[in-house]
Amino acid sequence: MTARPAATDVSQQGTLLPKTDAAVPPDLGRAERRDWRALLNNKWVLRALFYGAIAVAWQVTAMVKGEFFLPTIPATISGFGELFTEGYASSLLTSVRQLVLGFVIALAIAIPLGALMGRSKIANDIFAPWVNTLFVTPKQTLLPILIIAFGIGFWYRAWVVILFAVFFPCINTAAGVHYVDRELREAARAFATGRWRMLTRIYLPAAAPFIVAGIRLGFGMAVKGMVIAELWILADTGALLETFSRSPMRLDLYYALVLLIIGFAVAVNELLKWAERKLRPAAHMAGQV
Amino acid sequence: MPSELDQASVEVQGVNKSFRHQLEDTDLKVLDDVSLSFQGGTFTCVVGPSGCGKSTLLRVIDGLIPPDSGVVTIGGEVIKKPSLDRGFVFQQFNLLPWRTVIANVEFGLENLGVGKEERRRRAKEILKIVELEDFERYYPGQLSGGMQQRVGLARALAVDPSILLMDEPFGSVDDQTRMLLQDELLGIWEKNQKTVIFVTHDIEEAIYLADRIVVMRARPSRVTRIVDVPFGRPRDESIRGSAEMGRLKQEIWNELKSGATVEG
After folding, report:
1. Considering only alpha carbons, which residue of chain A is nearest residue B167?
2. pLDDT category, B11, cuts 50, 70, 90?
3. Is residue B234 reached through a cis peptide bond, with omega within 30 degrees of 0 on the bond before it?
4. Are residues B154 and B223 in the same domain?
5. Nearest chain A Cα to B88, which residue?
6. Are residues B237 and B143 in the same domain?
7. Do residues B156 and B170 share a domain?
């Protein structure tokens, strides 16, 4: 076990316990228990334990059941290398390009539409039923319609991404703009703020934390949309996922590819979380809003 | 040619305003045929119990709320919407929490289309007047209530309005801070006499600050009395404890009491 020496390390550094005379350990049993508790309060220790256990379970299962069932961790890691050396990664890159374009279009629709719905009762009355219905519709069921409309090329895939990604940022922007503090609006009006500046200097900044949260949720949906779109027509990343998963010898590549997609989504999500924190300065949270 | 002071004089003529009471589905008369005039360059306080419509009156004068009938004219012109010729200071400060102190002060100047460097220069100048020059990079949420209201005052002063409308501006800060802010406001006003209309429910504050006090009552909301304050300028702390202060406070309180209700 690695945890035990770590526990004594901590007490020797004296960060948690005062140094005791080694010759007279007053209550060693209790001191050790406190070390343990301190370790379990550290989220990184907890995570290392939990995910370490999963990794061990993965490796053991793979070794017992064999590579047709589950590739070993080293095999999966070498699968990453192969994805890049064999040129498979370029398929992922093509997919990401469509994802990015689709996502940017989705935001270009979602944020102005959301802002309009948040500001105008008429716009909200018109668009809310449509947005709310599509929001809860399983988007997969609509894919054939998009294939009929756009074929199976670039625009089909971009539109699937848009369809998946557009709703969260739209609904969040609408809510954020709608609930801007009445008193802030009044203050801005008292300073003779024009309509356009009202939107750009009051409504959007006030709603920014909502909007970025919506963008983050929307991005998760966009990645989902990208993979589902390609699985339906077996193109690029979707085709690779299908091929690797169906040929048992290539399960290592399948796992590597899945982890790569997850890693990409997590990385972008973290980036957006960082942006979210930046847009919400400590002062903003401590202040009136 | 009307003089500068005439330009800054405010006339309220026969203003009526009702609000719909949501729950009872009735109209609540907030201003009942209010007529008042405010001479350019004078400091007027409006006192009255809560619910007497004094804040509404201030918003009608600014153009934030349209009256149901009657007009407000400033320098002879009918007011239809807010203008940067009037500066507004709110009870709850209403600063933009995502902007720094200096960016908040610049807000009105941006609306006026003042260039960036000139904006910064003027904002710094005003922040010095309200003694916040060391806090220009702070966010409102990092400041105390009194400091936030100094930012609110700086924001209103930055556009150099001829009329300053103040809605219980010191009602949300503690007593000591309030007295300091009153002195600060008097200091600023005595140097550059704008027309000030200052709403408060604090009788002593009204006497300490104003040339003239408008007393309002609730239900029906109307002006019941106008009191001239006999103290000269510049004023200092000594008048707070004077016999004349005590007499005036009693006089205004008697006036308010006759119109006050427990629920008011």
Report:
1. A187
2. very high
3. yes
4. no
5. A190
6. no
7. no
Q: What interhelical angle do B175-191 and B145-158 show, nearest 10?
A: 20
pLDDT tens string A133-170:
999 999 889 999 989 999 888 889 899 999 999 999 99
Please indicate, yes or no, whether residues B126 and B98 belong to a single structural domain of this protein. yes
Domain extent, residue B130, equals 93-160
Q: Which of B16, B154, B43, B10 is nearest to B89 (CA)?
A: B154
**Cis bond leading into B220, ω under 30°?**
yes
B96 and A205 within 8 Å at the Cβ level: the answer is: yes
Q: How far apart are CA A109 and CA A134, in angstroms?
A: 15
Output the CA torsion sign for A53, A57, A63, A69.
negative
ipTM: 0.90
Token code pair at residue A281: 């300065």
Structure confidence at residue A131 (pLDDT): 93
Q: Are residues B64 and B184 in the same domain?
A: yes
Quick one: B203 exposed, middle or buried, by C-beta within 10 A (0-12, 13-18, 19+)? buried
Number of CB pairs, chain A paired with chain B, less than 8 A apart: 79
Instruction: Please tell me which residue of chain A has the smallest CA distance to B111.
Output: A193
Q: Which CATH number fits the domain that encloses residue B32? A: 3.40.50.300
Helix (H) or strand (E) holding B21: strand B10-21
Q: Which residues of B touch A184 (CB under 8 A)?
A: 94, 96
The number of domains in chain B is 2
- Among the partner-chain residues B62, B97, B110, the one whose CB lies closest to the CB of A289 is B97
Residue-wise pLDDT for A8-39, tens only, equals 444 444 444 444 444 555 565 666 777 777 77
Q: List per-residue pLDDT tens for chain A, 289 residues long.
A: 334 444 444 444 444 444 444 455 556 566 677 777 777 788 888 999 999 999 999 999 989 988 788 888 888 888 888 888 887 878 888 889 989 999 999 999 999 999 999 999 999 999 999 999 999 999 889 999 989 999 888 889 899 999 999 999 999 999 999 999 999 999 999 999 999 999 999 999 999 888 998 999 999 999 999 999 888 888 888 888 888 888 767 888 888 889 989 999 999 999 988 888 877 654 454 443 3
Distance from CA of A169 to the nearest CA of B (A): 21
Of A227, A214, A230, the C-alpha closest to A109 is: A214
Which of B140, B160, B180 corresponds to the end of one domain? Answer: B160
Do B220 and B204 share a structural domain? yes
Q: Reduce the DSSP state of residue A112 to 3 states and report it.
A: helix
> Which domains, and CATH codes, for chain A?
3-70 (no CATH), 83-286 (1.10.3720.10)
Of B142, B160, B178, the domain-final residue? B160
Quote the mean pLDDT of chain B. 90
Q: Contact A194/B111, CB-based, under 8 Å?
A: yes
Contact yes or no for A191 and B64 at CB 8 A = no
Co-location of B181 and B241 in the same domain: yes
B204/B74 same-domain check: yes
Of B90, B97, B107, the CB nearest to A283: B97
